[in-house]
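Re-run with default settings, no changes from the original entry. Doing this only to confirm the output is reproducible before filing.
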Amino acid sequence: MVSLRNHSTTTTDLVRQDRERMVHSVLPASRTDRTMLTSGSGCFVRDSDGREYLDASAVLGVVQVGHGRQEIADAAAAQMMRLEYFHTWGTITNDRAVELAVRLAELSPPGLDRVFYTSGGAEGNEIALRMARFYHHRRGDTERTWILSRNSAYHGIGYGSGSVSGSPVYRTGFGPVVPNVHMLTAPHPYQREWYDGADVTDFCVRELEETIARIGAHRIAAMIGEPVMGGYGAVIPPADYWPRMAEVLRANGILLISDEVVTAFGRTGRWFAAEHFGVVPDVLVTAKGITSGYIPHGAVLVTEDVAETVGRESGFPVGFTYSGHPTACAVALANLDIIEREDLLGNAERTGAYLAAGLRGLLDLPVVGDVRQIGLMLAVQLVSDKDTRADLPGGTLRVVDALREHAGVIIRSNPHALIVAPALVLDRATADELVRRLRSVLSQVRPDGSVGSSVHHNGKH
């Protein structure tokens, strides 16, 4: 029998086998290059040729405690030797799942005392949408099936989570999508032209009220939104946006789902971004930073009212194979210990402000239109014209490629901005290095989105 195990050690072999065997997200078939990562430590990762890259994105805003933490590996190994896995269906449970649920309830905004486990953010938002509709169904309000979301939002790529994500790319070609979803305007102060000269919050609240009147409050189950929009580029709403939106929702019996998949567990300098706005949602979705990505995991936090209502009669009829996975819960507990012990929330505030000051120095460049920051969640908006605030033609992909190739920076982007979200262990020296590397490339970006040929590699090896 021929072994299919990969014994290749050269980068060339690995890249060839990747092209032959793997299906990647958002990768055109014409692209044959790969960055073959093999190790990491702190804010840096290395490829199979030994080249070092500064991970400016904590992968996808996930790795709060940095790469290569021995404590987390030890916690996983110890738990695997005790009880590697079991489900939490019906009356079955496990000690680690209970311990983590207690810890999450202690950390969360007051009133979010019950926990439903998932394996990731999209799963969490799928559960949140199901819970919202099922909550009203169990209360006899069977017409409440509509979900309000926002243009430019990202909530995952499941059929429910993808249907409430604002970009057409998640729906085009995948239809029919989940019905009874309505998109509202996102609160994006930089895009002032969206609001017809009105105050951003006034515009959004009026639009919400008009939408409720048109659809009918008795037909709307919930509104879902990120406290700070991550995938769209650290879009921070005005301070009065969430309090005023929540007031309208609650006056009409509409649940508020807060998608904190990106923002929870220290990313914004608080355990949860909801704390910045003084609004406690009915459902709060987490993932990513709960384990710093060392093992896939997520948790949906809900109020006692929601938990008791969806659990009536035969109970909430939906569950995942890996809900309450004991090893994932053990890793989450070790990860939360590190965040607390090393004051990574405080570091996110302090070093985030320091990094933001450095990035704002890039505003002297023609293609840098805006810099946004809350904790260690930042974005650098790239424009072809500062007056019109138009995006670079072709988006930011060429810039991202140049940063990786010439500056040794791995960074996440959307068509409008570079999303800067390094690990919460970032120090000032690494922040300075990141700003220097960004300037070396962004200073060479032309209004047409191309990057000048004079860029030289400034990364470490």
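The chain has 14 helices and 15 strands. The two ends are 41 Å apart (CA to CA).
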